[in-house]
Amino acid sequence: MTTAKDIMHPGARWIPAGETLDRAAQLMRELDVGALPVAGDDDRMRGIITDRDIVVKCVAAGKDPSKVTCSDLTEGTPRWVDASADVDEVLQEMREHRIKRLPVIENKRLIGMISESDLAHHLTDDKLADFVESVYSSA
Q1: Per-residue pLDDT reduced to its tens digit, 27-44
Q2: What is the pTM (predicted TM-score) of this model?
Q3: First and final CA of the chain: distance in angstroms?
Q4: How far apart are CA 34 and CA 70, in angstroms?
Q5: Residues 59-86, buried b or exposed e (16+ Cβ, 10 A)?
Q6: Domain map of the chain by residue range?
Q7: Which CATH superfamily is domain 4-136 in?
Q8: Which regions of 1-139 does DSSP assign to beta strands (E)?
């Protein structure tokens, strides 16, 4: 059985909820990633901030990224998967919530992220095509 831990990109890092978006963008650049899980003071996930969130919800809206915090843009219930979850569970979670990046948690700690790129390296072409259609379809 292939698990989330088998296909994830290891070494994901949190960003504190109170951190500003300009710092989030700098950390994304340093880590060469497009998304960061956002953690509260209790080290529990509060959501995910993406490079697109920063551009569309902050910069394009005329806000100053040095004054807007990550918690200002996180919304909804954070989604994640346990490291031992089967790949089918990973796909189900991503399909059901139409998400493209999924944090991987082990023993209540962030250990990695699964992105579309990770899926592309580990799924058959048919399974990948099915996933892409389900996440990107307008229905």
Answers
A1: 999 998 899 999 988 878
A2: 0.84
A3: 31
A4: 14
A5: eeeeeebeebbbbbbbeeeebbbebebe
A6: 4-136
A7: CBS-domain (3.10.580.10)
A8: 9-10, 15-16, 35-39, 45-50, 81-82, 101-106, 109-115
